[in-house]
Amino acid sequence: MKNILIVDDDSEVSKSLANLFDSSRFHFFFLDDGRKMIDFVKERNDIDVILLDVNLPTTSGLDILKQAKLNDISIPIIMISGHISTENAIESMREGGFEYLTKPFEIQKVIDTVNKACGFSRRKAVPVEPKAETGMAEVDEIIGQSPEIVEIAKLVGQVSKSDAAILIFGESGTGKELIARAIHRNSRRYNKPFLSVNCAALAETLLESELFGHEKGAFTGAYFKRLGKFEQANQGTIFLDEIADMSMLTQSKLLRVLQEKKLERVGGNDTIEVDVRVIAATNKSLVQCMKEGSFRVDLFYRLKVVSIYIPPLRERKGDVPLLAEHFMLKFSKQLAKDISGISPKTVTMLNKYAWPGNIRELENNIHTACVMTKSDTLQPEDFPIFSEIESKVEIDLDHLQDDYAEIFKKIIDPVLLKLINGSEGKIYYFLESALERALIASCLKHFGSNQVKTSEMLGISRNTLRDRISKYNIY
Length: 475
What we know:
This protein is of the alpha/beta class. It is built from 22 helices and 14 strands.
C-alpha cells in the first residue's frame, strides 16, 4: 500500500485525483493548508508521494517546497497548478520538485507520474543548513502556455542546478539565447558574467581572438593584450550561438577548454585556467555537419550533455497571442502610446501566418504595428505584412488537377515579397528545405510515424528518411 498526501484547498480536485487510483494499492491523505504539510509528514513518516498545489490561499506551494527541502524531506513532491506558468515550472524543478503538472490534468500522465514517484526509494539525505536568501534576479521571461514550452521551462529548472554543458537546437528566431539566459540566471552562477558570442558573425582569426584573447603583437593590429570571452566569463556562463559555423581549428581549441578548463591566448605561451559553463546553440543539424566533416564528433558529445529543442512558432500557434500581447505591452510602453489590446480579427490573422522568422519576426511586426497604429487597439491594417500576403490561399484543386507546379505557384505568389525581404538571398534553399521537411512530417503523421511505410511511399531509403528526420528535428 502506497500512502499519497494531496495538499490542495480545493477538496473536489483532491477527491478527483484520488479517484484515479486503485484504492487497494493507494491510500490518500488530504490537507487544505500547506503550512501543516511538513509537520504532518514528519509525524507520520510513511508518506510515499506528495501532490502539492502551487496556488494555496495562505502560503505558496513553491515556498512549502523550499521549506520541505530545507527540512530534509526527501519524499518526491509533485507540484500541481491550475494556471500554466513557465516561471512556476522553472522554479518547481529548480527547487527539487519531482514533476510539474497543470490542470486540466491528463489522467494517464498523472497516474504514470505518481507510479514513477512511488518507485523512488525514500533516501535519507545529509542534513543541510537553511539557505540564506540569495536575492536572485528575476529570470528572463519565457512566454507561452503550449505543452512544448512548459516542458522546456521544466527542463530549464532541472539543468540549472548543474554545470553540465548544454546544446540548444532550433530555427533562427525561436529564442535560443533567451533559454540560455534563463538557465544562467537560475544557476549558482547567476551573479557572475553571462557573455554571448555569435560564431557566424566573425572570421576564424577574429573568433579565436574573441574567445581566447590575444597577446600584444600576436598579429597585425594587436597593439594591446586582450582578454577573451572565456577569461571575461570566468565563473560565469558563455553562450556560443551558431556553433556549427565555427572552424575546425577553433573547435579543437574549444574542445581543450571543455576537457581541461585551460586555454592559451593567441600568440601566448602561458596556460590560463578558466571555470566557465558553456551553452551552445545552432539552427543546423550537427549530425549532418558531422557527416559532412565540418563538425568534430568529440566536440559534439562534449557539448551535448543535455540537449534542448525549441520548436518553431508555427508548431506552437497557441503561444502566438500571448507573445503578441507581451510585445504589444512592451512597445506601447516604450513608445509612450496608450495601446490596450489586439483586435480578434488581428489575432486570427496572426495565428494563420506561418512566421518563418519565428518569435523575432513576430516581435518586429508587433513593433511596426505599435508605431503605425492610430487607435488603442492593433488592427490588421497596422501590419504591413498583411497587405503583402493573403490571409488564406484559395486553391481549386479540381481545376488544377495534377499541375502541382501551378498549385505551388498559387501558394508562393502571395508570400513572395515576404520571402524576398526575409530570406537574405536564399529563397531556393529555404523553400527546398521547408518543402522537404513539411512533406516528411506530413507523411509520418499520415502513416502513424511508421518509418517503413513512409520511406516506401516517398521512394527513399529508411536511412535517408532517418537522416532527414534528424536534419530537420522532426519529432
